[in-house]
Structures are given as C-alpha cells and as structure tokens.
Amino acid sequence: MTDPALPDQAAPDAGQPYRVLARKYRPSTFAQLIGQEAMVRTLTNAIRADRLAHAFMLTGVRGIGKTTTARIIARALNCVGADGKGGPTPEPCGVCEHCKAIAEDRHVDVMEMDAASRTGVGDIRELIDGVRYRPTSARFKVYIIDEVHMLSTQAFNALLKTLEEPPEHVKFVFATTEIRKVPVTVLSRCQRFDLRRVPAETLIAHYAAVAEKEGAKISEAALHLIARAADGSVRDGLSLLDQAISDAAHGGNELIDDARVRDMLGLADRSQTFMLLESVLKGDVGPALKILEQLYRDGADPLAVVEDLLEITHWLTRIKVAPEALDDPGVPEIERMRGKDLAGRLGMAALARAWQMLLKGLQEVRLAPSPIQAAEMVLVRLAHAAALPTPEEAIRALEGGAAPQKPAVSPRASQPSRAQPTAAAMAPAAGPAQPGPARAQMTGTGDAAPETRTERAARPETATKPDPLTFEAVAALARDLGDGRLHRFLTEDLRLVRFEPGRIEFNTGPKAAAGMVQALREFLNAATARPWTITVSSQSGRPPLDETQGDGLKAKARNHPLVKAVMETFPGARIDEVRPLPAEDPDADGADGAEDDTADKISD
After folding, report:
1. Of the CATH numbers 1.20.1300, 3.30.70, 1.10.8, 1.10.3470, which one belongs to the domain with range 200-257?
2. Which of 208, 200, 229 minimizes the C-alpha distance to 330?
3. What percentage of the chain has pLDDT greater than the value 70?
C-alpha cells in the first residue's frame, strides 16, 4: 500500500535507536500534510507566484502539524534543488544541503525558539539583534517561534517594529494553540492559517497505511477507536497506534482488535454503554449500576464511561433533528441500529435533560475523590429524573386534574389527602392571592377578617365548583354569587377581545372602576374549578354584554326609532344611561318623586 502522505523510510540499522511513529512519519513536504488542503493550496500558490509574506501565523489544536508546517516552509524557501541552482519551491528536494540540515535541526540560518521557556524581552532582543545580519549560507533567515502566545507583553511590544518592517532576507513563522492570547497588533502583521482538525476517515486511512508499513495487523474497529481518541490530532493518534503495536508485538505480533484497544485506553464496550444509557433512561437503577460495575471491573475509566454517555446522547439528539446523521460511514452498523431504535423511543425533552445532567455529572466525576462513586450517583439521579414528567406533561396533568368532579363522588373521596393534593387545592396557587380562609389557616390565627363573597365561594366545604365555559356564564356566576359590582363591570365596562376556558382577554371602558381586573382574577381563581389568566388588551374588543343582550334596557333603547336616528346622526355616540319616561298623569301626587327614585336606582 502506497500513501503519498507517508515519507519514504529506509529500514533502520540495528545500532540505531527506535524512533516513535510520530517522528518517523513526520511529513517533510506539503504533499504529505493530511487534512490541510486549503493551507497547502494557498502556500503552494504563493511560493510559485513569488508572493511570499514576511510573517506567518499557524494556529490549531495540539498535534495537528503546526511546527511541521513551519519547518516545511523553511525548507521550501531555502531549497536549492539537487543541482544547487533551484529557487523557492513548494516541493523541497530533500537531498540538498539546506533540506538535510533543516530536517536535522542543525541549519544555522533556521532558528527555532520555544516561547514557553524563553518568554522574556531579553530573549526577543537577542533575536532582534541577529535579524540585521544576512544569512550565512541560505537564501532566507527563518525564525520559528513555537507557542508564541507564551511571550510576555513586553516581549511582544519589542517584536512589533521588527515584525512590521523586517529585512528582506528574514521570514517569521509563529505557531500557537491559543490564538486568542496573541495580541491583535501581532496578528495584523502576519498571514494567518488555521489548521483544521483532521476528519476521522482521513485519520483511519492514514493509520492503516502506517500500520501496514510497520507490518502490524489491526482491525478497522480498533482504528476507529484510535481515531476517535485522537480527536483530530494526527500526532496523538500515532502515539496511540505506536502503543497498540508495541502491545501486540509483545504478545507475539497478533491481531490488534478493538477489545485490546479498549483495554489499553480504558474505554467501555460500546454496546454495553448503549445498554447502560437505555437502562438509565428507563429508570431501571439496579441494572444500570450492575452494568457500570461490570465495566469498571473490566478496566473502564468512570470518566470515560460518562463521556461515552454524553457522546451517545449528543448523537441521538442529532439523529432526532437531522436523520441523515445515521448515514455517516464512520458509524459501525451495530451502533447505527441501536441508535436508530433509541432515538425513535426517546423524546427531545428527555435527551436534553440527560445531556444537562451528564454534563454536570462529568465535572463531579472528574473532581470526586472516588470517580466510580460519583458516576454511580450521576446514574441514580438521571434514572430518577427519567420518571419526571416534561413541563408540557405537567401542565396537561394539572389541567386534567382541575376538571370538575362528578357529583356522585362521596364526601370522603372529595376531601384532599396529604399525600396527593387535589387540583382544587393547587389552583389558588396559580392566582395572585390566596383566599381568606386559607390565609387564616396558614397563619394559625383564629381572628380572621370577615369573609367576602369571593372568599365564601372558595370555602372547602363546597362540594363542587362551577366551570364556566362561556363569558356569559362568567357574568352569570358573578350575579349568582351576589357580587353586583363585579357583575356590572362584566356587563357594562368590559369589552371582550378573546375568551377560552381559563383565559380572558379584554379591554375596559373609560368609566371602569380601578382594581376590577385584580378583583376578577381573584374571584375566578377562588370560585371556579380551574386557574384563570386575565389579560388587558389594547384592542377595542366587542361591545359590552348590556349592549348586545336583547333583554337589556340599553338594547331596547337602541331599537327605538328616535334613538336610532340620533346614533346615525352622531357616529360614535353611546348610550350611558337609560331612565323611564315620566308618568303621563301630572296631577298624581308623588308621581314625580317615585319616578325620580326609579331613575336614581337605574342610574346606580
């Protein structure tokens, strides 16, 4: 198997020390860099067009190839070819003196500095003093500063002027894993390249080629585990592959399967992790703890188990919102089948809750003195939370429990118990205030204030409470319970915008008394069998009930021909008060006084 990303390696001599795979298969040309096509294309075109920047900033996670890329840039700029007459090239020959010296870290004109150990301004001044001198033998002086974000503020400030206007024979290449810690004044003077995490499929193919060159036998499932543990870092994965090959070589050069890699990494069996998550989300604490105990005995790290549970939960959530995630070729068939089944049976709310609890539990396991005990407690909490209803289900249960009770229920059955309060007992909590008797019982005082009509309607000895389903029924309820002030507000001043059982939205007339909205809310929450939401709207709403009901005085007056003519002549006019006509017999004693008394009663 040939792979252009693998440098040609000669067989090592018997006397040479062993070189780890991360160093042995380190790329030496741009073509051997994997997963960085955008950066390679830009640098290659810049070198061929002779449009070379004076400073480059390489950033990315650890083991992604930042320092390697910096050395390749140094070789590409200083390569002279096999005949010694070449110029800068994106394909260094690897045989000229400059290429060999740079590869062996002994070139006098390519200086590599570790900013993690040389952070002071004195180190930068030493570097600046050498910038003025021309290179000894190479075409360019190349300064490679690794972990540049570790430099002090004074060191960065000392470097700025030289970095902005360096001599034409000097190139700077910076590498960092913490790009946010680099001052923006430095970033603005560099060409920035963000090295991406290498995809798992690319890593698997690369590791398979390395294993074949090393003569090792490794299964595809084991390569998947190594690529997953590498998390996009080529060097991390090569170190793990090196460890797995060493383990297999010690055991007789046998096949490296996924079980061996799991044991080496302290990972749990993936199928067992699926079973663990399924048991927890079912609420089966006992089986879940047994599975965790078995995984722990098999060598799985509790922290890795919780991380696997988080990863599976995230993957199931992705399946719910984007079913095409099941078609990912990197997912084994067994996991695809288990994931599809679990995602079909779990709701989004349960997955979101599991993610939050596992994420919090991950920190607890990491910090706990006994990680296995912390992991068990995380599973116990998650299993008990799985039995809790979602907010939608809780609201639905409350609304269902607040339904009117049947009259046939016996008095004993209608009384609330301590273990299971009825919805009628919980309904006042939805309103802004508790009824009077409840307040007296809570405070334990016997001297309660005199009961109002609203409080009398909320007495617990009432067997059943009405549940008005129309706005007219609400007005009739206020009239039947003797609250005349509220009844007048509902029929004369309230302009209904929207009504549904448990919700009233309305606009009030200009003559509405203050505090009637709060009084209406308290009355309905105390006197009816369901909690109510009262909302004042800016919309005009329908006319009041007195103006729409056919048996009202205002309705009769509105149908009078004279009144109709007045209403048509003056658009927007309204009937505020209706008084009876005076008696036709003016000689009748006391007639005027009686009629005036009647008019006063009506206007009131």
Report:
1. 1.10.8
2. 200
3. 76
